[in-house]
Amino acid sequence: MTTPAAETAGDVVLRLTDVVKTFPGVRALDGVQLEVRAGEVHCLLGQNGAGKSTLIKVLAGVHHADDGEIIWLGETFAPATPQAAMRAGIATIYQELDLVDDLSVAENAFLGHEEARFGFTRRRSAADKTREILARLGHAEISPRTKVHSLPAAGKQIVSMARALSHDAKLIVMDEPSAVLAHDEVANLFRIIRELTAQGIAVIYISHRLAEIREIGDRVTVLKDGRTTASNLPAKSTPTRELVGKMTGRSIEYVFPPRPARPEKPPILVVEGLTRHGEFVDASLTVAPGEIVGIAGLVGSGRSELLETIFGARRADAGTITMDGQRITGVGRAVKKGIGMAPEERKSQALLLDEPVYKNMTLSSFAGFARAGFTAARDERAAALKTADLLELRPRDVDRPARTLSGGNQQKVVVGRWLLDQTRLLLLDEPTRGVDVGARAELYQVIRGLADDGVGVLLVSSEVPEVLGLADRVLVMREGRIIHEAPADELDEDTVLDLVMAGSLLEGEPA
Amino acid sequence: TSNDPGTDAQVKTNSSGDANAAPGTKVVIGFSAPAADHGWIAAITNNAKAQAAAYSDVELKTVEAGADAAAQRAALATLIAQKPTVIVMLPHDGKELNATGLEAMRAGIPVVNLDRAFPSAAAYRLQIKGDNYGMGLAAGQYIGEQLKAKGVTNPIIGEIPGIDSLELTQERTQGFNTALATFGFKVANRRPAEFTADSGQAAATALLQALPKMDALWNHDDDQGIGVLAAIKQANRSEFFMVGGAGSKAAIDSIAKDDSVLKATVTYSPSMASSAISLARLIGQGKGMSDLVELQVPKEITLASETITKDNASKYEKLGF
Amino acid sequence: MITETAPPEVRSSPKKRLDDNAVRNLGLVGVLVVLVIIGIVTKPDLYSDPTWVRNNFLTILQQASAIGVVTVGMTFVIIGGGIDLSVGAIIALAGVWCTTLATQSYGAAGMIFTALVVGIAVGLVNGVLISYGRLVPFIATLAMLVSARGLAAQISGKQTQVSANDTINGIATTKLLGVPLLVWILAVVVAAGWVLLNRTTFGRRTVAVGGNPEAARLAGINVKRHTVLLYALSGLCCGIAAIMLTSQATSAQAAMANLYELDAIAAAIIGGTLLSGGRGTIIGALFGVLVFSTITNLFAINNLSTEVQNMVKGGIIVAAVLIQQFRYRSLTQLLKR
Amino acid sequence: MITETAPPEVRSSPKKRLDDNAVRNLGLVGVLVVLVIIGIVTKPDLYSDPTWVRNNFLTILQQASAIGVVTVGMTFVIIGGGIDLSVGAIIALAGVWCTTLATQSYGAAGMIFTALVVGIAVGLVNGVLISYGRLVPFIATLAMLVSARGLAAQISGKQTQVSANDTINGIATTKLLGVPLLVWILAVVVAAGWVLLNRTTFGRRTVAVGGNPEAARLAGINVKRHTVLLYALSGLCCGIAAIMLTSQATSAQAAMANLYELDAIAAAIIGGTLLSGGRGTIIGALFGVLVFSTITNLFAINNLSTEVQNMVKGGIIVAAVLIQQFRYRSLTQLLKR
Ligand SMILES: Nc1ncnc2c1ncn2[C@@H]1O[C@H](COP(=O)(O)OP(=O)(O)OP(=O)(O)O)[C@@H](O)[C@H]1O
Ligand SMILES: Nc1ncnc2c1ncn2[C@@H]1O[C@H](COP(=O)(O)OP(=O)(O)OP(=O)(O)O)[C@@H](O)[C@H]1O
Ligand SMILES: [Mg+2]
Ligand SMILES: [Mg+2]
């Protein structure tokens, strides 16, 4: 990656003026201004559905702007195809993983611009280059020949990054790259971003985590309802209140709801000695009514698998799961006993993308609304609208197909599904992934409210502050084992981080 | 089976000087036969058209019958609505079109059934058909006699029928087995094809593989026989002789030339379509067949299956399709 | 915590999805109208006779009835993420089984019962192989196609079995209020199918299972059991169609309903059903069937030769889908404004 | 806040997929072995003759050759997310076109050229209709099936057209190193297909287009053009197969290669190709074809009647897939440890 001398940090490489993009029924971009300089990390902030992903897709040649002007390296720029954008030096890491499962890591990294001679792929050369990039990314242990579908989500994110780096890009756009990354992975990502910017490459960085923006960002542009509400704010020094205010048009304090005192109750869920070979070993835990139990751990520590097994979606190799003293053996039984689960991957595991939002929200409860097998669409819509209001779904329209919702809003639909049900135990896997600050506070409130109504909650999150702030009791998982358990207020972030990374703070714990 | 679509009338039944040949009242003949993807059926349609063209008092309304019995029922429904004087039809399946035959007869339109009989006698005025059972008999008879003459006592006989789910195939096979049984012979292996050359090739290849040595082979259909003969050549086999079926031009030529294992074919002549048109005209005009004493055309006519060999091939040349 | 909550004003188009389907179906109606106009232009004499026109209309419907019933079942299977290549074979097996001399001795009720039970049973086997045997639907039902036709040939001894039962044979000739009974049966099946798909939990599950089986499973739907039911439903429709066809032909045989699978799948897809599952409409499927049966009718009254028929038919199918798409796109464009 | 640490390892199971395919193919080899053993047990006399065994082996391969070539093209189309129902019809059209008297007058080269051009041209039309006309592949190629067979019937006047060209007819009788030329052609096409799929950008892009079209588009692949090429490739394979079949039957007609589409799709799927696209192997498809052709051979040497044959065939297909799955699961279980 060579950088011409003319483009040292500070020169404006990209300028957007009054960019407009409409979808059927939605004005996703309604006059966006953006200015990005070489060598800077420019952060985009905005609520779910503010238009961030749409904006970067316009830059990447996926969507075409209806109006407005884009100047890239001093010239008017309107990429007709993703390839045109890439050729012009803009590489993109999309919010939704865009990999081909049955191709190898190297093939994915170089898809569309293969290392080839006369149409024949040069596998060795591609593998070497990929290995080099992966090493730069700190993941030399990923083999370029591995098929992508055998990688966990975090691994896929790294391949997406490798793909972006495989282009000789002058601007790299990252749409919520940290959403599927754990704490330490984020640190690694930042190391790479710093390397890139040191070479004069510009980075547009999108995230809902303010802390990240403070750490890595240089300047911030805020979007609200498709409009730029503030540009070029200093990332490190702009007060949170101001940022949030520009995003939401109101002020939000980012706090967790208080933990009410709770009378001891016998647990509703008892898990004993649960094991799935290669995923987790001998997991035992309990959840009482009204209690929120959090599970912290690294990506790949087996938390999702544990949750899915408790829900009956995976068959346990050993151990028992009992709800109200009765064994849970399959999803059907679990749902009947009042267990609900919001899975981790919304697109592949949770949504019917072509169905309207309300049908997605009632996917687990429509039978409850039905009379004698006949569905009650009116009741379902009304209930879904209520939940939509509660979670600030935007647009506030439960009839549009789930596909047309922004990522964070899709997540709200998934979580909202179980708020409608007669759920007594809720399993939440990364419930706030991609959810914006305002809605997140609201979601915390809702989860706590459910607990106050007597629902037991088992919460998996890669954000340690979230687990600590929301849960009553915290379990720490590492490499498939539950290595520590304590009330949330007896733990702090450093302790948990140290634990999950096999630190030494609590010596004597089983490893 | 030739590369030129033969459109000329194959046979004329009305010799000159016959009173029946003189133009009479105008007759509209509705005609329906299954979609022709096979030489024999194509010849049926062509013969019917040519024969009708030979009469100045006949108008032929053909309706295409599509791919199956249901399509043919639909086509005939539109034909009946047009009220032709007589309907000539070669049904996909006689039983499946029985109801349609009844409907036409009830509507006052005499029905001439070609080749595939209706079970109910009220469904047709005239039935003219080839003799599938007799065809099998003839083939079996020929094979039996030849083998007996050669003194083969325990012959290995192969059979390649056409589409096996058709009733006509069953009848041919039954006739064949019956005739062989009179000689104390039976079929060693039977591989059905689909009346096409490529399926004939595939079936014959399989059969030849299963029977490393064979004495005689009956292939029900000369069209698929092209493929059967190709397979025999490809397998380099010649220790047996073969009998064909239906009587295509190519088969008759080959028998006459005696240049392959094909030594005979048993006829199932598409000329019946020509006869059907002639007789339909007579029915429409209320006349009888001049060589019969009866004043009306009889109700059933079954054509005999003949055996074409090198000796009589020249006689049949112009009957080949 | 949170101050001032004003939900953002966003323009949206409620009921948009409904319109999509309506527009699609409208496109098919347009295609039908065009076909009829072609008929009028090419055969003005026939179309000038109102009795003939009425009769012709009923004939088209009647010819569409059996395949229409099959298509309803097929639509469910496809929406549920599967495919059923064995429908024609099931009809043949059910038809042959219900016309054996033994079955016929039980009278019309016995024959109908037999056809329906055979249809459902074969459908259940399909479903179990696919759900619990984890066979790809294409392969499982293809295997069933081959086997069921073989069994039908075995049972019938490859003979065409004539139905001697006047009640059964009468189904094809009976009219109610001037409309053939077969058309009434189609109407009832379509109506029931529509209600089942759009107004019942069964229909909702079908869409979920086909649209995203993993999501359906995690939402607590018993995907395997539901899949079995879908194939059984298709089998049931085949059983009904077998009776209709047997009545029309007053007979049954192992080769009957040949290639119905292709026709039914094509009609469902033309009607807007997604081959990959999760989306589809019963009304659209019905229109798909009607388009095919109107094309056949058009060919018949114009007496096109089979080869020309076939060449033209392919073109019409393509044109129909293109017209439909065109209308669809331009209409949704209009709706946008 | 965020502290720099060495990034954690992303665990994965290397080479797992490679083994998947190998294991799957191993399962099919197992099925083939079982079929041969059944042959030996039922016909020990035939199998005691080594010349016959060798011949039989070559015959099986030879009978698999044309459909094998078609299946290679079909596998590409399916991996690329499509389906081609028109393969049989393309063969018929190419076969008929190349055996008209006019074409035959240009000699063998003219005939071969005609067959290939017709195949590619029809494939291109398919591809354009699907890519640019946005027709569902199922419908577009079904329409093509109907039209192309109609055109073939028109051209041939519904007659069986005999090939009088000895070079063409000789293809089926020629042997090279004791192996029939037809088998060599199959071998070359399979090898070329394997290289094309696994070692070229075209192949890798095919997987991307079928596995995740959106990702392929985002990676700058021209999905539409690629789709067109895939159908053209399938058409080319059909053109080759048309020559092979014409040579075998020394003739061509409009009804030839009947239902090849079902056989080719079934073989591809049994060979491990995902009907929804994005995954598949050429070697597996070849094994799939061989399984079918070995079954036919087994039936022939045991002289099974058609109806029994069909009943058993369905069962064997199901059993084959189940065996393969069983082996697959248990072997991957073993590999896991
Ligand atoms: N293909 C589409 N069709 C219709 N509407 C769309 C489409 N894609 C996005 N939208 C709409 O455009 C708006 C902006 O969406 P976008 O994905 O850009 O939001 P975002 O800022 O990235 O949100 P998030 O933080 O949740 O990812 C949303 O209202 C969304 O529903
Ligand atoms: N598709 C896959 N194929 C093979 N192994 C996988 C796959 N997905 C996950 N794993 C393995 O399963 C284990 C747990 O993975 P997973 O990432 O789901 O855990 P997690 O704790 O839920 O992390 P996250 O917070 O990212 O969900 C790891 O060993 C991982 O390598
Ligand atoms: Mg986004
Ligand atoms: Mg997880």
Structure description:
By secondary structure, chain A is α/β, with parallel strands linked by helices. Chain A has 3 domains: 1-89 and 169-252, 3-Layer(aba) Sandwich (Rossmann fold), CATH 3.40.50.300; 90-168, no CATH class; 269-507, 3-Layer(aba) Sandwich (Rossmann fold), CATH 3.40.50.300. Chain A has helices spanning 52-59, 82-87, 105-109, 123-136, 153-166, 183-198, 210-216, 240-248, 303-310, 331-336, 346-349, 357-361, 366-369, 377-390, 407-419, 437-452, 464-470, 493-500; strands spanning 12-23, 26-37, 41-46, 67-72, 75-76, 90-93, 116-117, 120-121, 171-175, 202-206, 219-224, 227-234, 269-276, 280-287, 292-297, 318-323, 326-327, 339-342, 425-429, 456-460, 473-478, 481-487. In chain A, the strands form 5 sheets. In chain A, strands 6-9-10-3-11-12 form a 6-stranded mixed β-sheet, sandwiched between helices. In chain A, strand 19, helix 16 (437-452) and strand 20 form a beta-alpha-beta unit. The longest helix of chain A is centred in the middle third of the chain and has 16 residues, at 183-198. In chain B, helix 6 crosses helix 7. Chain B has helices spanning 39-53, 69-81, 98-106, 132-150, 167-182, 197-210, 222-234, 249-257, 272-285, 313-316; strands at 27-33, 58-64, 86-89, 111-114, 126-129, 157-160, 187-190, 216-219, 241-246, 262-267, 300-302, 307-309. With 321 residues, chain B is α/β, with parallel strands linked by helices. Chain C is globular and about 60 Å long. A two-stranded antiparallel sheet of chain C has the order 1-4. A two-stranded antiparallel ribbon of chain C has the order 2-3. In chain C, helix 4 packs across helix 12. In chain C, a hairpin with a 2-residue loop joins strand 2 (175-176) and strand 3 (179-180). The interface between A and D is large, with 60 and 39 residues. Bound molecules: adenosine-5'-triphosphate (2 copies) and magnesium ion (2 copies).
